[in-house]
Amino acid sequence: MAISLNLLQLQANPARPKFLKWNPVRPAVYFRAPARSTVVMSQITPSYWATINEDIEDHLRQVIPAKDPPAVFEPLGHFIFSAPRNSAPALCIAACELVGGRRDKAMAAATALQLIHAATYTREYPPLTAREISRAAVVDRIYGANIQLLTGDAIAPIVFEILAGSCDWSESGSERVQHVMVEMARAMGTEGWVGGQFRGLEEEATAEEVSEKTEGGLHACGGACGAILGGGSEEEIEKMRKYGKLVGMVKGLSKNVFGGKENERKREKIEEFKVLAFKVLEGFKGEKVHEIYGFLDFEGL
Q1: CA pair distance 200, 263, nearest whole angstrom
Q2: CA 76 to CA 56: how far, in whole Å?
Q3: Fewer CB under 10 Å: which end of the chain, C or N?
Q4: What is the rounded CA–CA span in Å between residue 230 and residue 227?
């Protein structure tokens, strides 16, 4: 079964923000990576997953409007929309619909997940060194490292502002949003992405261990949050959490798979996780089941 190595990388192409006179940086070292999804999407018919991604992108632009002062909000918008798109938000929407919920119920959570990814990505690749330049190339050197690091921290609180604003304040609605906030806080912090980044600094850390906390944690959060907001049962929530974690680990391990024995082991683990992910879905019924099964095969993700 074929799998795209980029599960989701829908790049937005906002107008380039103006250079701030007080923060001149030469944009000659890092260059924007080609938007591969532009080619992919032009070759396929719009699908279930494509429409989800479009809806998330539209909602993201609605909740991140241009504001004053420009010195703060121009870098904010730039880093949010220049970060690669992640597949966890789309999984959040799909999980909500799978358990019988409406798409709009999970849209704020899906947008928040993309902001979590944008925040972590912005902080992870500041223009300080040429370390892992192939990944850092996605973040343009328009702003200095000081602005980039501060902006990454500024993106994170917006996650909870969006979630709080989405609450309908009914007893069940507020409980679900509160549950989602806890899930996302864990996915962001030491139990999730930040913990994975620290683990990645240790020499004995394996790619599997890092992926489990970073991409695995974010996708587990996406699957669980979608099921929570869709009104799923505890069993359904936990199944989507497990499915999301496996999908995220496939994504994480797929980032750097080349030749050699070590990468052959990675490929074997990827196939193992895919099989386990499909087994988790056993027992789900409804019109959206076949879409979830196709999640790992859609080339736009």
Answers
A1: 17
A2: 18
A3: N
A4: 5
Asked whether the bond before 69 is cis by omega within 30 degrees of 0, the reply is: yes
Indicate the pTM of the whole model: 0.78
Residues with Cβ within 8 Å of 147's Cβ and at least 6 positions away in sequence, in order, are 23, 75
**Which of 197, 199, 237 has its CA nearest to residue 220?**
237
More confident residue, 192 or 8: 192
CA distance 60 to 112: 9
Q: What is the pLDDT of residues 122-146, one digit of tens each?
A: 887 666 554 444 444 445 567 888 8
Contact 62, 162 (CB under 8 A): no
DSSP for the chain, written as a single string:
----S-S------PPPPPPPTTS---TTS--PPP-HHHHHHHTS---HHHHHHHHHHHHHHHHS---S-HHHHHHHHHHHHHSPP-SHHHHHHHHHHHTT--HHHHHHHHHHHHHHHHHHHHHHS-TTS-TTHHHHTTS-TTS-HHHHHHHHHHHHHHHHHHHHHT---SHHHHHHHHHHHHHHHHHHSTTTHHHHHHHHTSTT--HHHHHHHTHHHHHHHHHHHHHHHTT--HHHHHHHHHHHHHHHHHHHHHTT--SSHHHHHHHHHHHHHHHHHHHHTTT--STTHHHHHTTTT-TT-
| CATH class held by domain 46-293 | mainly alpha
**What whole-number distance in Å separates Cα of residue 206 and Cα of residue 297?**
26
With CA atoms as reference, report the closest residue to 256 among 246, 242, 270, 245.
Answer: 270
Whether 58 has a pLDDT exceeding 90, the answer reads: yes
Residue 217: which of 86, 97, 128 has the closest Cα?
86
User: Among residues 260, 141, 197, which one has the least CA distance to residue 133?
Assistant: 141
Q: In this structure, which amino acid lies at residue 117?
A: H
What is the Cα–Cα distance from 72 to 38, expressed in whole angstroms?
29
Q: What pLDDT sits at residue 101? A: 94
